[in-house]
Design a protein that fits this description.
By secondary structure, this protein is mainly alpha-helical. It folds into 2 domains: 168 residues, no CATH class; 165 residues, no CATH class. The chain is 78% helix and 1% strand. The chain has a two-stranded antiparallel ribbon. Helix 7 runs antiparallel to helix 10. The longest helix is centred in the last third of the chain and has 41 residues. The protein is globular and about 65 Å long. It starts with a helix and ends with a helix.
């Protein structure tokens, strides 16, 4: 009993855990900005590896508002999962101010990050138009998206996580519903639809950039093989990240009785990564074959971008489903193992 109590004291309290989430957010925003700046302005960039004013402004309008929204949503899912797995404890529990049944992370965060992100980015776009002249180097582009996204997303994590912890633990300690939520509604409203919408907009911006540069090199037309290859890369990227996001979100919902438990442990992480690679190859082959059968050898920037948006919506939804499927099995097995150890 004493050993158990000592172990409980060693677990970080919420305030210390929150500091860890700020650090995790910093790392996440930094990696995302570096990766996307490299892909957009180096891998799919001009020979001088620089960005024009218009290209940088579009990139800022896509990156800052949407990642300001995505980061606190992901932090809520991680906080709930980590509480269930004993990575933090309620050290300074505050009395509940009243009933709060908000459990959907998207509803908890709301549209404020997106709206404020758009306003801040719009102001920055106007400012750099006056202050900075000439092409933007990679360091400048990264600073322009990293700094405001880090500040805004940290503010909303600071605002949303403390507001979510007490209602979440209250719901966790309360009685479970007799039946879980209808799976189709849960899947669409809390996973597929918000992610599909966000990824469609993000990939629209990236598609115009990537295919626009390709059109300049080829005289205005995008080769079908380029579109098919892009579909493969988009598929792997979104399957992986949507799987990560949805598995973290679904695990606490199993404990709340909102999602039914599942039999089986689920495949190991390396097998899941191999599955994503296989599905991305399948998507590239299917897209290429469909365009070949239709007799389409090339297309306009806008047609290629529409295809990219469609692929993004489909694969984001598929990644969410895989995350739910895998997360349910992993968490169900963990619950079973913990019960057998008692």
């Amino acid at each position: 009993m004493k050993a158990e109590s000592k172990k409980e004291k060693e677990k970080p309290g919420f305030k210390k855990y929150l500091i860890g989430q700020y650090i995790a957010n910093l790392i996440g925003v930094l990696i995302s900005s570096l990766l996307l700046v490299y892909v957009i302005f180096v891998f799919f960039g001009n020979e001088d590896k620089a960005g024009s004013l218009a290209a940088v402004q579009v990139f800022m309008l896509i990156f800052i508002p949407f990642f300001t929204l995505i980061q606190p949503v992901g932090a809520i899912g991680n906080m709930r999962r980590d509480f269930l797995h004993g990575k933090w404890v309620m050290d300074d529990r505050e009395p509940s101010s009243g009933p709060d049944s908000v459990i959907n992370p998207w509803r908890r965060v709301g549209l404020a990050p997106l709206i404020i992100g758009i306003v801040v980015t719009g102001a920055m776009c106007l400012a750099i138009q006056v202050i900075i002249t000439g092409p933007f180097n990679l360091l400048t582009i990264n600073i322009l998206v990293f700094v405001p996204t880090l500040i805004l997303s940290t503010i909303f994590i600071w605002r949303c996580l403390p507001r979510d912890r007490v209602p979440f633990t209250d719901l966790l300690a309360g009685s479970r519903p007799e039946k879980p939520d209808p799976f189709l509604r849960y899947f669409l409203v809390e996973h597929a639809l918000p992610w599909a919408f966000l990824q469609a907009i993000i990939n629209m911006g990236f598609g115009i950039r990537v295919f626009g540069l390709e059109a300049l090199k080829t005289g205005g037309e995008i080769a079908s093989v380029t579109v098919a290859t892009d579909a493969g890369f988009t598929t792997w990227f979104l399957l992986f990240f949507m799987w990560l996001a949805s598995q973290a979100q679904v695990r606490p919902d199993i404990h709340l009785g909102r999602v039914s438990r599942s039999q089986g442990k689920g495949p190991a992480v390396p097998l899941m990564l191999l599955l994503f690679v296989a599905l991305s190859v399948v998507m590239a082959v299917v897209a290429g074959a469909a365009l070949w059968v239709a007799g389409i050898e090339s297309m306009t920037v806008y047609q290629a971008t529409v295809i990219k948006m469609f692929v993004a919506m489909v694969t984001a939804s598929a990644g969410c489903w895989l995350g739910i499927w895998w997360g349910k099995r992993r968490e169900s097995r963990l619950i079973l193992d913990q019960a057998s150890d008692r």
